[in-house]
Every structure is written in C-alpha cells, then in structure tokens.
Automatic annotation (TrEMBL):
This is Acyl-CoA desaturase. It comes from the Eukaryota. Its cofactor is Fe(2+). It is found in: Membrane. Stearoyl-CoA desaturase that utilizes O(2) and electrons from reduced cytochrome b5 to introduce the first double bond into saturated fatty acyl-CoA substrates. Its EC number is 1.14.19.1. It catalyses: octadecanoyl-CoA + 2 Fe(II)-[cytochrome b5] + O2 + 2 H(+) = (9Z)-octadecenoyl-CoA + 2 Fe(III)-[cytochrome b5] + 2 H2O. Its main location: membrane.
Amino acid sequence: MAEVETKNKKQHITEQPITLSNWYQHVNWLSTTLILIVPILACIAVPFTSLKFPTAVWAIVYYFWTGLGITAGYHRLWSHRSYEAGLLLRVFLACVGGGSVQGSIRFWSAKHRAHHRWTDTVKDPYSVRKGLVYSHLMWMVLKQNPKEKGRTDISDLNHDPVVVWQHKNYLYVILTFGILFPMVVAGLGWGDWKGGLLYAGILRFFFVQQATFCVNSLAHWLGDQPFDDRNSPRDHVITALVTLGEGYHNFHHEFPSDYRNAIDWWQYDPTKWSIWVWKQLGLASNLKQFRANEIEKGRVQQLQKKVDQKRARLDWGTPLERLPVVSWDDFVADAQSGKALIAIAGVIHDVTDFIKEHPGGKALISSGIGKDATALFNGGVYNHSNAAHNLLSSMRVGVIRGGGEVEIWRNRGIKSDV
Ligand SMILES: [Zn+2]
Ligand SMILES: [Zn+2]
C-alpha cells in the first residue's frame, strides 16, 4: 500500500484520471481565469453596461491591433521569423500582442514551434487529434504532462531584448494593454470608463483569444488540403475571416517561413497586407517568400496524389504482365471452338458479353473473331474513341507470343515448333 502511494506521489497529476475529488488539481487556474472566468464574469455585466458607439468603434479598432499583435507579431515575426521588424514595430507588437492576453511571446512561440515540429503527435501542445475542443482551449484549461512536452530551440528569442522584457513583465503588460489602456482611451476620450473596461478591454480580448484559438482548432479541422494531406492543417476562407488571414493553414504548415498565408491577391490576409505596409513605411524588412515554382510543385504533387488515388479505384483491366502468354495457333483454335476472342495490338480480348452491345453492330465485331483486328480497330473501319480503348482493356484475357500473327508466320520458317 505504501509502495502504491509513493508511486502515485511521483506521478504527475495529468497521469491520473480526472475524478470528482481531484479535478481542481488538473486545472491550470491562471490560464482558466484569464481565458474563461474573467470573460464569463464580463458577460454577466453586459446587461448592466450600455455600449456607446465610440466605445464599439474603439473596441473593434483595438481588436484588430491586438489581433495583429498575435498574427503578425507573435506568429509570423517571432515564431517563424518570416520578416524582420525594427525596434519600434517590435515594441508595438509586443505591447498589443500582450494586450490579447495569450501568454508572453516566449511562451507562445515555444508552444507554436513545438506545434509545427510535432504536428498531430502527443508532443503537439494543441494537437487536434486530442479533439477539437482540446485543440481550441482545453489544452490551456487543463495542465499538460511535462513528459509529453515537445522541446524546441528558442535561443533566438532569448536574444531579443523586447521578447525578454515582455516575458519578465508579462503581468504588467497584460494589465496595461489588456485592460487599462483600452479603458483609459474610452474614459479620457468620451467618458466611458466602464464600457471601455468591459467592451474594449475584457470582451475584446476574449474575442481575440477565441479567434486565435481557431487557428489551432478550426484550421486543423475545416477545409481543403491543396499542398499536403498527410497531417491535419487545412485551408478555409471562414477560418481566414475569423483569424485575420491565418486560415490558409495547409499552405502555412508547408511554407511556415513565408510571411504570407494567402498567396493569391484576392484571398483575405490582412496580416500579410499589414506587414507589406510596414515594409513600405520602413518599419519591416526582409519579407520572406517561397519561390512560386516550389509552391506550385507542392500543389501539383498533391493533385497528382489525388489523381493516383482515384485512378487506383478504377478497373483498368488485368495488367499485361499478369496475362497468360498464348501462341497464335492456340488463340485461333480457341476462337474456332466457340470463344469470341479478338486479337488487337498483340493482346487477346474476350468480347463474348460485348458482341450484342457493340455500337458498330454485331456483324462488324464478329468479323474480327479469331483474327488480328488491330487495323480494323485503329481506323481500318472506324477509329475508336478513348472510351472504347478503355473498355477494350477491361476485356483482355491474354497476350500473343511474339506479338501477333505476322510474327508467328515469320518465325515458322525458321523454327517449326514455335
Ligand atoms: Zn497549425
Ligand atoms: Zn505557424
């Protein structure tokens, strides 16, 4: 008994099943407070707090700023290094990214690099294979097993003073940019302190959180896989609309260091547009793009894979190498004994069941029985369609030794027993 207890003590809580008596130990209370408890309390306050028009506009504007802090900052800049940003832009992105209340850049990027490195495995911190809701937010609500942690290199982030500063002062950053700043703007701007706190502060960051979480859940669950279907990432316009353009996730997992998620101009990717504008303003540089040739190669290979899978499901007739090899004389003898066999291009076809369905009539096809009808089939009488060639191949039953009648006659003069 004592031994069992010692064993249990060594076990991490995540290795024990969730029960009524231990469920609270499974919960990551800090994350749960920030992503669920505070937003739920805010929802309860909504009926008692009127939404003023300027506050609504400000909440939407700040939603986009803080959303971009995550998509253009946390994700495309720090997790993937898909472009370079000057100090001013990095400080802005670190502040507004912090204002979306999703952990520090260091925490977020380490998890995200693990997600790319170990996609769909137990080491993927938000693997969709553990369930859609788990990948969306339960991975933060519940503690994670440290033994399943996918380790990644974040030494580059430790050398960025903005990242280090933001990580060290993270609680101040979320208090300031998650709550105080949006509240103070509304309060000093048009006297709406309470609305600023509730709508531009808490509910705004709740919506940004939910939108970002969709990249981990919805983008691995809904849509097409034009570049690779071995793992779960998918492309869908709905996910793109929700996530400021992060919805072309199949492309993103294939080409993660590309600063774009959407490669066509008409696709919705405001994060890409923002980075491009920052470049024009001299705030960002070295925007990375994969060569169009490499992207098209990936697309064509996936198309080919799909075509091959479809092709494999169709009946193309017995492969030639698996057909029996028959001498010309045996072929003729079989045909004379009543089998409706026709030789075309060195291959014997059994047309017994097809004679009455032959679009060119019964007489024509019957005239080829026991003969080499290659010329007849390929234009001597009628140049058959591609569909006819396909149909014919499904009727093949043997291959003629030497290729055909003429070959046999020629050989006969040399060697009589062929
Ligand atoms: Zn992903
Ligand atoms: Zn990514």
